[in-house]
Write a structure and sequence with these properties.
about 130 residues; mainly alpha
Length: about 130
């Protein structure tokens, strides 16, 4: 992640240590759907929604499962896979105080539900009928 830190924003407008919670539906599944629908439209808002999701006590593994699913459907290059794999593997090695900040900040390089589906996925779907 340190190599990607400069890509997030060029100003101090968004700070890893100063994430705020954005409103989310109480239902965990609806909250995840809203988070991943926001990822491709507004990364900063998505980060604050992930932070709110985690701070509300929702399961980080459910978030990780959704992130992997969108990676497999929407990922288009090796860096998508490398970054997502590294972020999700490192989550439990981060100090508990910073885990939610860390995972929330990852959305700046994750795929969301609105991203273009990988053409290979479309080919597989059409081949399988």
């Amino acid at each position: 992640m340190p190599l990607f830190r400069g890509d997030i924003v060029s100003s101090s407008e968004h700070r890893f240590d100063q994430l705020e919670r954005s409103p989310l539906p109480v239902d965990a599944d609806q909250a995840l759907s809203e988070v991943f629908a926001t990822v491709d439209k507004d990364k900063a808002l998505a980060a604050s929604k992930v932070f709110a999701y985690l701070e509300a006590g929702h399961d980080p593994l459910a978030f990780m499962d959704a992130a992997r699913r969108y990676l497999f459907l929407k990922g288009s290059n090796s860096h998508d896979y490398k970054f997502t794999s590294a972020v999700l593997e490192d989550f439990f090695h981060i100090s508990p105080r910073w885990r939610h900040h860390y995972l929330a900040s990852s959305v700046f390089h994750l795929k969301g539900s609105e991203a273009k589906t990988n053409p290979l996925v479309e080919r597989i779907r059409s081949a399988m009928g």
